[in-house]
Amino acid sequence: MSSQEGGAAESGLNAAAASTSRSAMNDGDVLAVTIGATVPTGFEHTAAEEVKEKIGVDAQIGKDRGRIYFPITTDKLSQVHLLRSVDNLFVVVAEYDHYPFKESKEETLTEMMQLASKLPWTDALAVWKLNGKLKKRKGYRKGGNVTKAKSNCEVTDAAVDDTEQPKLPQALSAAGSQTKAESTAAMETSTTDSEEAETAAKLLKFRVTCNRAGDRHSFSSNEAARDFGGAVQEFFQWKADMTKFDVEVLLNIHNEEMVIGIALTEESLHRRNISHFGPTTLRSTLCYGMLRLCKPQASDIILDPMCGTGAIPLEGAIEFNSSFYVAGDNNDMAVNRTVNNVCHIQKRMAEKGGASGLPIDTIQWDLCNLPIRTGSVDIVVTDMPFGKRMGSRKKNWDLYPSCLREMARVCTPGTGKAVLLTQDKKCFTKAISRMGGLWKRLHTVWVNVGGLHAGVYLLKRTGGVFGQTPEDVYESRGTVKACGDENSDKELA
Amino acid sequence: MKLLTHNMLTSHVKGVVKGYPLLIKATEVKVNEVDFNPQFVSRMIPKLEWSALVQAADELGQREDLPGELVPEYENNEEFLKKVHRVLLEVEVIEGVLQCPESGREFPISRGIPNMLLNDDEV
Fold this sequence. Notes:
The complex is a heterodimer of chains A (about 500) and B (about 120).
Chain A: H1 7-26, E1 32-38, H2 44-54, E2 60-61, E3 67-73, H3 77-80, E4 88-96, H4 105-116, H5 121-131, H6 150-161, H7 167-188, H8 194-199, E5 205-213, H9 221-236, E6 239-240, E7 247-254, E8 257-263, H10 284-293, E9 301-304, H11 311-319, E10 324-329, H12 332-351, E11 360-364, E12 379-383, H13 393-410, E13 417-422, H14 425-433, E14 439-449, E15 452-461, H15 482-492
Parallel strand pairs in A: 5-6, 5-7, 9-10, 9-12, 10-11, 12-13
Antiparallel strand pairs in A: 1-3, 1-4, 2-3, 4-8, 7-8, 13-15, 14-15
Helix pairs in contact in A: 1-6, 1-7, 4-9, 6-7, 10-11, 13-14
Chain B: H1 3-6, E1 23-31, H2 38-44, H3 50-59, H4 78-90, E2 91-99, E3 106-110, E4 113-114
Antiparallel strand pairs in B: 1-2, 2-3, 3-4
């Protein structure tokens, strides 16, 4: 590519280059980039497993919790959007394992500002643009000032394709002056492609989001975002807009590690299945993580005895659809919401063609007295009441032992499993410790649910036949009294 | 409610010994199209109470020619597996009642959801 000089010459060159560069992009200029993904804390390994399984690459788990990174070629981008364990996606512009932050705030921030113009933005921006067609949108933003015509877009293409870094700002600022003249003419030409409208260089709006963790930084995340953002704005001549942005630049700092990225998801992917929410609906990415943990097999019967809005069994019925899900709750609203959510998904599936029938049923029942045959369930997966958002701590003392027993009864001895999420770790641990004859603790994943620290407990059903284990001497109903315990312990001796 | 689910449901009314299988009295039944997965069906069969399944299908008038006994070597018998698939997953009770065979207690089904909640005195 020849170097570009004057404004007029530039526009001519750009127009010519653009028509070829656009077709070059469409022919599949495949780029190799690193994608970053935020996942529910605690499920980083599960997410990495899914990436290996579906994208075929190894993922690195970021030092700051809740993030994984993996390399892709851009032809895989649409598949990345189908991952079920990720909340948000971004493309990495640059990553530093040991960024030498200076002692003083001023020096550090100045350096960061200088960094903005030196970063390899091109590839990441190309991915951002490609992604524009793939990501889910909140809805096309209407606006009187969005008047795009081909000329503007061509300039953008040329700018984005320009691999010579120093040329980039020049092309863009020239584009700016060029398009101003043409924009009035552009108003008359109709645009059919909304993508082009959004990616026009002139009106690209951006914001910088900074996440900072570590106790040895001299600056705050706000300061970093502000200064880095200022430098980005000057470099690209974009317009800063905190709410209606096209490009979201991410600045993630964790101790000495710094990652700069561009967001690829507009709204978090985690609310995908649920249209009818309840007070404690779990995000689907967390549901997926819990299900993966119990490794559902073909024809497994999977029970959620306190399903709420059905988030867990629904995610299972969609993603691990060779198993069968039985969802239940005692609450009227909950069972109705579950059925509504199932119908909503089935309708969506029917619209896409093909048989719509999810392997799930919903029942209204009392979980301490399940109307289910003994030993007929393979896996129990559920979100147990936390005592803060639902139920109460006192209720949990009685509830947990009762339902753990009932779950043990319906679960197949020897092969059955349970994956239980709870925030009331003390109550749960105590209840489980008295059930060694029925349940064995395998593994615990510590997660964050709506700001609350919770545990996902993976349990294995022992071979013990229900009704014949030592625990069956223990009365599960009623308040537990210390002397009552002593008596039953004596009986066991 | 699909018949696969019905196969697992039992009456838990206090004092009842023989609460399985629940009798079905349906006023609205739907038959949907569900993707056929032969492996799913053949692995599910050993987990079922076969006679209860046949009885339930009969009660709904959906039995067709489902045999009263399991055919030997059904794992590779696609025709048979398809019949089982239909009865297990495609037939759905939308409105009706489930009845405890011993106590006669009825549990309503509405919008496909059986309500198995008991009153305090029945627990």
